[in-house]
Amino acid sequence: MKLSLLKLYPSRIGLAGGWRVDFRSWQGATTSNIGYIARSCTAAMGEKMRAGCRGNLFVTGIIPIMLLALAIGGCSSTEEKADEGVGAPVEEAGQAGSAGDVSVGGEALVAGATEGGAWSGSELQDPQSPLYTRVIYFDYDSSEIRSEYLDVVVAHGEYLAANPSVSVTVEGHTDEQGSREYNIALGEYRANAVKRLLLAQGTQESQIITISFGEERPLDPGLDEAAWSQNRRAELLY
What we know:
There is one protein chain. This protein has five helices and eight strands; from the N terminus they run ββααβββαβαβαβ. The protein has about 240 residues and is α+β, with helices and mostly antiparallel strands. Helix 4 links the parallel strand 6 and strand 7.
């Protein structure tokens, strides 16, 4: 930065004919040119000032120069310290670990399939397992488990038999066709059909709770066959 303006003009205070330095535009001055500025001031003031106004020059010129030198030195040190941080490397969040990792307490927890393809999470959450399917659909006015869902219910029964501390709630649901009382009964038949097949795989009866909601909790609120087919179901809730 450069010194933007330096003015010398007759002083209106102190001794008559004295001079003083205008430091209003000292922005950017550096300590290296303080000596030059002082020498320029002395030459410009001439013999008259030296003879009659040395005291005034010292008060209005030299002291401000000394104070300015101290101020500039402090600013220079601050700028150097601030510059030291420029360009420092910043590690963005997520770079330390691999994508998909979840960090808890400084440790990465990885859920899902490993590099070898084996599932490392709960069997119930494995998309490749029949246990991942927990909604069984039924035909209109029927409580018979459809053939495409037999293996699913069997797999749940085997899982429960192998894990006696695990329990499941089987909810029976219907579409809105028919009376409320009829649909409550039909929902119960559907829940019990699933329960019987679970028990056949070795599941304990104490592990299963059945409940019927009839038409009260539709999965799809529509009023056509596409919606009704989604509402005729049994759900397994662990």
